[in-house]
TrEMBL record:
Record Gene3D superfamilies: 3.60.130.30
Basic residues bias: start-end ranges: 116-126
Organism: Collybiopsis confluens
Ranges of compositional bias, category Acidic residues: 32-45
Region (Disordered): 31-141
Name of the protein in question: Uncharacterized protein
Amino acid composition bias (Pro residues), ranges on this chain: 49-88
Amino acid sequence: MALFTPSLRAAAIRVRVDVTALLDLRNAELDSQGDEELSDGEFETVEYVPPPPPHSPPTLPVVTPAPSPLSTGPPPPPPCPVAPPPFPGHAVSPPSAATLVPSSPGHTYANARQRDSHRRRKRKREHDKSAGQEGNRAIHKRHRANALANTVQVEYDCAKLPVDQSGFGGRLQRLASDRRTADVLCAQPGWRYLKHEVGGPSTPIVDINGRLMVLVASHPRELRKWQSTVMLPLENDIIDGASKITFTNKQLNHDRGGFPALAIGVSYGGGETTPLNRSLSNRTAKVMNALIGSEHMKRASGYMNQLLKTYNPLMYEEYHKHQTILHKRCPYLRKNFTNSVWSSLTVNFGPQTVTRPHVDARNRPDGWCPILAGGNFDFRRGGQLVLPDLKLVIEFAPGCVIFLPSALLIHYNCPIQAGETRYSITQYTAGGLVRWVSNGFQGQKAMLRERGLSDEEWGAKCQQRRVDSLRFFPVIV
């Protein structure tokens, strides 16, 4: 006797189809969460209401962002074919057979998970299009166009950034402390003050040739929701974590300032013979793992990654490629986040994180490090980011992300007011990791012995690397 009659079989098929459709829709929603913070639509202007100040803030020379009248100049070398052009006019070469996008004939997926993920995203795009909603690509393109109209140009040549001799790091610099306020700094000849419009578009900062050097990223559209559901819980997690850690003197006082700071992730170049997970005590590791495992930290990291992917896709693809190669070779290395292209993260626990003038010379020189500011402080009166090489003082609001080549540009903060709090989170990749992969998964001396390079040949390769690195700072104006 048949278990199912034809009518029952048809009903069962319909149920399976309905359940599959519901699962696909839910998976599509989950898949789009990485873009959610950035792709909510147009920005909204939100008025910032600071704590009542004892006196009015000083009047400072203010930069009015405007497009640069410079000519485009020679285009940079062709970026990764799978990355969309970051800004209008930034040329991209056609894809090669080795890097076909999923819609190209002959494309094959690495695995079934990648295939299913792509199909869910495609169905989500088609659903949004049929519902009259704007897709993520169109939204990101609009964000880039808005940012382009907000460009600020500085009198600096990106080609003169102080990369070290190897091309895999910055130059170590001993710098004196600087506690001057924004008004004192901007009283110097040539210095400018860059205001930040909360809820406004991103601000690209370009050199004399129109190369993108620094990005002051916009807040998510739903700013109040971002502050209440991400930033405030994250700050509480940081405060709670600090109370459970016994910091060493080295962690309390370091080159960046006199506040507790801890890093977690993958490192190489500080004496290690192979890439390693950073060593932490059991108690500290438990606290740091809880921090990076929280939904608030994951959303903050995802937002940083989405911003990089939107505004500098070539740099994003380069970081992503490095991560893929490194972790395939060394599966014992732990990622802080499944969706982050940076290898390490540092939490500056505050409660008054005000950094001294410094460069993070061991970080990758041809990449950006995102800095996320948090806390309760009046960003118009303190906490500004100072970039003395560019003669800029930039307002740095809580919940804002600023991207900069931290291995190359001197950077620090203006003091905040008494009783205020400030925390920050940074992500980065050690230049030593990039060098280890580039050397064929070995140290510098072993690579030179294996390849038999003379000093002149090695010097020429390093020089070429420094020149090639400029492509990650694309000409946008």
